[in-house]
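Appendix B, record 7
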Amino acid sequence: MLSTNEIYDKLRGYLEEMFEVAPEKINLEARLFEDLDLDSIDAIDLIAKIQEISGKKIRPEQFKTVRTVGDVVERVHELINE
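Structure tokens (predicted):
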């Protein structure tokens, strides 16, 4: 079981490595599309990576309301603890 801090650390790493997001742009309030310049394809790639963390199949609709890095952390934490 991962804590929200551990999920956030992993997510930061993915954003930096996979999408070349500058570390200083990443925080819990950062908006995925507006602030971090992710697009819908990036979002799908990120969901695939999150499935590896959670070990659970994620349906895209589970992430429809996700807008910020903090939203992703919370959603992943919920999925892991279901």
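Remarks on this record: The mean pLDDT is 91. The two ends are 11 Å apart (CA to CA).
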